[in-house]
Specification:
The chain is mainly alpha-helical. It is built from 8 helices and 4 strands, in the order βαβαβααβαααα.
């Protein structure tokens, strides 16, 4: 079984060469890079039997649905392929997309048995946007935390937060789509 991954930030030619070796059973791809390969006629999706769209809710939030739609319309018709959509949340918009992209869709919802491990303390702070940085800085500084992972919603927020933490003497690195893939590894 041949599995090939194609995604942005890595050498296009190397990825194209992997595809050119011969038939591929499974392609794991980001929408943008897959469309790049399609536009350059390096890949055809005409024989796809199973299409898996992971993180469909996040793709919707981040504006990737037009790219996903282009990919779907370049695959066989929905009655000739199996389509699986995965997501943490099932919004009305995702349900509508699922009905457009699938035949006789079935919804499977799984409730987590336990959201957090008992040894993890969870605390919620209700703060305004203008108070977020001060709170984060004080938590890190006052508790002498050395390893902290902070998630942000957008790249510009990641960059801004990393700059502010650095300015206040917190050693940090940022990881986002604008950081080259080689630097992430």
């Amino acid at each position: 079984m041949r599995i090939v991954s194609v995604f942005g930030g890595m050498d296009y030619v190397k990825q194209r060469n992997q595809l050119a070796v011969g038939p591929v059973d499974i392609i794991v791809a980001t929408p943008g890079r897959l469309l790049d390969f399609q536009r350059r006629h390096d890949i055809s999706l005409k024989k796809i039997e199973v299409l898996v769209i992971d993180e469909s809710d996040r793709m919707l939030d981040m504006g990737f649905i037009p790219d996903v739609r282009k990919i779907i319309y370049s695959t066989p018709p929905k009655d000739k392929r199996q389509t699986l959509l995965f997501g943490a949340t099932l919004t009305g918009q995702i349900t509508r997309l699922a009905s457009q992209w699938t035949s006789n869709p079935v919804t499977v919802e799984i409730e987590p048995e336990q959201v957090a491990v008992e040894t993890v303390e969870q605390i919620v702070y209700n703060v305004t946007d203008s108070e977020k940085f001060a709170l984060l800085f004080n938590i890190i500084d006052k508790q002498n935390l050395e390893r902290v992972l902070v998630f942000c919603n957008r790249r510009d927020e990641v960059r801004r937060l990393a700059e502010m933490l650095t300015r206040y003497g917190i050693n940090c690195s940022m990881l986002s789509g604008e950081v080259p893939q080689k630097k992430r590894i």
